[in-house]
Amino acid sequence: MKKAFVIGHPIRHSRSPLIHGTWIAQHGLAASYEAIEVTPEALPGFIDRVRGGEFVGGNVTIPHKEAVFALCDEVDPLARTIAAVNTLVAGARGLRGFNTDYMGFLGNLDQARPGWSEGLARAIVLGAGGAARAILVALRERGVGQIVLLNRTPEKAAELAAEIGGPVVAGGLADYARHAGGAGLVVNTTSIGMHGSRFETLDLGLLPSKALVTDIVYVPLVTPLLAEARARGLATVDGLGMLLHQAVPGFEAWFGIRPQVTPELRRAVEATL
Ligand code: ATR
């Protein structure tokens, strides 16, 4: 039986076992996918077990994404740019690390708003943490004209913009008003929105009427940012799809079948939020 895992600390709230378990059952595979609590101290020992052939691979979540990056035998170039690994594939070539968050971001928007990136002249990305890295790489890959990276701590945005390069320019949250007019996309990558917290200073009324607003926070599904965007008649995409779509490449690498993100799967996960 092929075994896969998700490791994290804490891990018990992870929805990944539900997602992969649904696909395993759907395809009638002799496979398992289990959530395993692994502390930072126990991480090297666990990685040795994976190297020993106990698992075909698995997912990696908070707080291990950077540590696992350093423990891989081979890291995919995009995961190297993002500087974090969320998917491990074990095999004859040793332990290979990937980052599927950027594909999750793109897969979600592609499914919800086909054509969203065509001719996109400017995107505003809020936040400069780990999640922002994957999204900046994704937007850069799609050829977005200008990516405006805004963060509460502008120095962090400037550092990240210099690292990612290309069309990324940096600023503080106060610079939003100056850039909003030409922005076709706004992405929240910060934790603001969880438990109802909100940005106090962003005026969504400054965005073009065709702008799309998306959030990576999915608890609640409709964050205050998305609710306000909807109330203003702007298009929105919630963050749950990113979670579902980031799971696709891992499942395909471990089990050889590319699974579908269906409305039924989405409803099953939504029911647990
Ligand atoms: P992750 O890896 O999930 O992206 P992170 O690396 O801790 O998490 O990054 C969190 C991001 O949310 C940062 O951009 C942070 O801004 P700072 O760099 O200024 O800390 C942003 N953030 C968190 N809480 C915030 C708040 N109350 N207001 C504005 N930005 C906030």
How would you sum up this structure in a few lines?
With 273 residues, this protein is an alpha/beta fold. It contains eleven helices and 13 strands. Strand 1, helix 1 (16-26) and strand 2 form a beta-alpha-beta unit.
Structure write-up:
By secondary structure, the protein is α/β, with parallel strands linked by helices. It is built from eleven helices and 13 strands. The chain has helices spanning 16-26, 43-51, 65-71, 77-82, 101-112, 130-141, 154-164, 176-180, 224-231, 240-255, 263-270; strands spanning 2-8, 31-37, 57-60, 74-75, 87-91, 94-98, 122-126, 146-151, 168-172, 185-188, 192-195, 212-215, 235-237. A six-stranded mixed sheet has the order 2-1-3-5-6-4, with helices on both faces. Strands 9-8-7-10-12-13 form a six-stranded parallel sheet, sandwiched between helices. Helix 5 (101-112) crosses helix 6 (130-141) and helix 5 crosses helix 10. The longest helix is centred in the last third of the chain and has 16 residues, at 240-255. The radius of gyration is 19 Å and the shape is globular. The two termini are 30 Å apart. The model has no long low-confidence stretch (mean pLDDT 96). 2'-monophosphoadenosine-5'-diphosphate (ATR) is lined by residues 127-132, 151-153, 156, 189-192. 2'-monophosphoadenosine-5'-diphosphate binds at residues 127-132, 151-153, 156, 189-192.
